[in-house]
Amino acid sequence: MQQSPVLRGLLVGTILVTVLSMIVGVTGGVILAVMRLSPNPVLSSVAWVFTWFFRSVPRLVLLTTMGALGIVFSDGLSFGFPFDKEIMGALGIQGDLRFLTLDANEIFAGIAGGVIGLGLSEAAYMAEIARAGILSVDPGQREAAEALGMSRGKTMRRIVLPQAMRVIVPPTGNETIAMVKDTSLLIGLPLSNELFFQLSSIGSRTYKVFPSFLAAILFYLAITSVFMVGQHFLEKRFGRGFGQSSDNNQGKIARLLGRGAAH
Length: 263
Fold this sequence. Notes:
This protein has 263 residues and is mainly alpha-helical. The chain has helices at residues 3-36, 41-56, 59-67, 69-72, 84-90, 104-108, 111-135, 139-147, 152-182, 195-206, 209-238, 245-262; strands spanning 77-80, 98-102. The protein is built from twelve helices and two strands.
């Protein structure tokens, strides 16, 4: 009976939140990196402020604040037209133009709140990783692509980012492993569907605190080991072809010189 909430916390609060948060973080990080490198000062400044803020706030503090956002949106989180009441009042009609209203407590104090909080925080770190990867690509390749008539966006998608992945993937794997461990901070929301929370609760109820903590360590070791294996194969895939061309070229030159000397 005790395994069910633990496995649910493992699948939902740890693995699912990790995957979704990394999707938000990687996507947002790439967008922010492109914005930081943009010649547009507004885009660059917005990206810098976002990165500065979310890198400065500890994740536990961020998640705890996220869980309290329900107080700010006490009437619910509404989606619709702005100034809807004023518009309807000017037309002499009672009502509003809101087409969707959600309970803010359920959003920000649940899985969605954890994904938003951890994802936005991760995006700030991934922005620096992606920016370093983009800057590692030879600028001459961008210039050559632009000389061929490719737009800036197309050059980024087809020329720069594929090559930058060689630099981006290794630290992204490290960030993913760190995200697995940071899901234990979801207690700040508070979120009960989380692995460490469930194991801690079992330890408190059964007075077997240390075995529960030891079980948590074993679970995290197993999960991170799986992610490390996946990281290894990703690095191997995106690293193909790099570091070999120079050796091949040297071999070709040596063979040509050998043939010339033979003649």
